[in-house]
Amino acid sequence: MKHINTLNTKLLQNTVAKGGCGECQTSCQSACKTSCTVANQACENK
Amino acid sequence: MIHKYRMNGLNIVLDVNSGAVHLVDDVVYDILDFYKEVPEEEIASKLADKYTAEAVKEGLEEIKELEQNKMLYSEDIFAEVIPKVENRNPVVKALCLHIAHDCNLKCKYCFAEEGEYHGKRELMSLEVGKKAIDFLIKSSGNRKNLEVDFFGGEPLMNFDVVKGIVEYARSVEKEAGKNFRFTITTNGILLNDDIMNYINENMHNVVLSIDGRKEVNDRMRPRAGGQGTYDTIVPKFQKLADSRNQTDYYVRGTFTRYNLDFSKDVLHLADLGFKQISVEPVVTDEKEPYSIREEDLPAIFDEYENLAMQILERRKNGQWFNFFHFMIDLTGGPCVVKRMVGCGSGTEYLAVTPTGDLYPCHQFVGMEQFKMGTVDTGVVKPEIRKSFEGCNVYTKPKCRECWARFYCSGGCVANSYNTHGDLITPYEIGCEMQRKRIECAIMIKACENNG
């Protein structure tokens, strides 16, 4: 594409089927104790 | 739904439902102001003073191609995931153990009221700690990876019990088919070589509390007698971070209204040699003089942007460091279910007090109405658990309208409760800062991806 550069091609819609296993880290156990960030976490079910 | 913004000379467009992130040129950026708002044939004339009709046509074609590929204006299909979220019957997989409701510091912003959590000074016994481990194993179903955070107050004030709990958990994990990951959070005062060695051998992660510059840290984190702590803790933290090869730890600070120039604190920590840094806004009663107010937001936004630019600059010069709140994984990251439900407080994550009472998370400890049970009885108030289970970005009206919902997952429930008295109305000032952090994080990624 000439006008648009897409940075990521993995789409959230595609995580529905396999999602929700819950093996990933609990957000508050890392370094945030008051301002939850989730999008930085790793999936443990790849 | 899309969200677009300009930062550091980049035009960035986020597609909310797919999570796609696009860098676009000015033509496409401006077309998107009108796309879906006015008939397509009118867009070229609206932009005629800036772009040729041919350029607008090309831009429109690329927009449509992405739309067809479900990467722009993609539909919200996640309503169909809600039953999966609501029926997921989450198991407990993480405990925050309040090893000591006591502290050797007198931090002014402490939500735990200098360690006591609205109660009295208490230390957890080994017996209660072992029961907490048993409770976690029993309550975690088929979940293999279990997390235990040694928290306080100051957990090093009861370190023998920490060691006893780790030993006990290790002795039972194999047979139970579990893998424990331990974290400890400490203010550093009692750290010594033996404790550091122990932490390195046994703790998956360690969180070291320090706010940044000496004057900033010592103003808010004094000892009981008022003396500062910076000079005591910095050399210990440096030693510990180096001994962990600068990974699997964080120096973690809090910024307040007193240091709205907090980028200087983050950079100061980087200058001290720390590579894993987390500094986040104070959450407190708005009446406190150091609380973050709405009027502070413009300065805070500038400061986050300034920090993002400094991080890029330093990384370019080989001075890499990681800022926790700008971490974002655009190539994968968690599934949409995780992004809908967030931290898991009250369901997957519980806090245990020194006497073994269970609460939805460390922030709720001491609020009697949120006591869910004990390590002996397990959760005996399923209605509390149910109310936390019901929290997701689709049950929070403000989140449904927000472009950042799949990045922050609805924010901190305790913040909602403390500001609005309910679990589903987000803490707006926190949301504003979160959105800015996400914008900065994506800008950093975009710059780094583009070389």
For this entry, give a set of tags.
heterodimer, A: 46 residues, flat, B: 451 residues, alpha/beta, TIM Barrel, 40% helix, globular
Characterization of this structure:
- The complex is a heterodimer of chains A (46) and B (451).
- Chain A is largely without helices or strands.
- The model of chain A has no long low-confidence stretch (mean pLDDT 77).
- Chain A is 0% helix and 7% strand.
- With 451 residues, chain B is of the alpha/beta class.
- Among the domains of chain B are: 2-75; 88-326, TIM Barrel.
- Helices cover 40% and strands 16% of the residues of chain B.
- In chain B, the strands form 3 sheets. Chain B has an 11-stranded mixed beta sheet, covered by helices on one side.
- In chain B, a hairpin with a 5-residue loop joins strand 2 (10-15) and strand 3 (21-24).
- The longest helix of chain B has 22 residues, at 428-449.
- Chain B is globular, with a radius of gyration of 24 Å.
- The two termini of chain B are 29 Å apart.
- The mean pLDDT of chain B is 94.
- Chains A and B meet through strand 1 of A and strand 3, helix 3, strand 7, strand 8 and strand 11 of B.
- Strand 1 of chain A pairs antiparallel with strand 3 (21-24) of chain B.
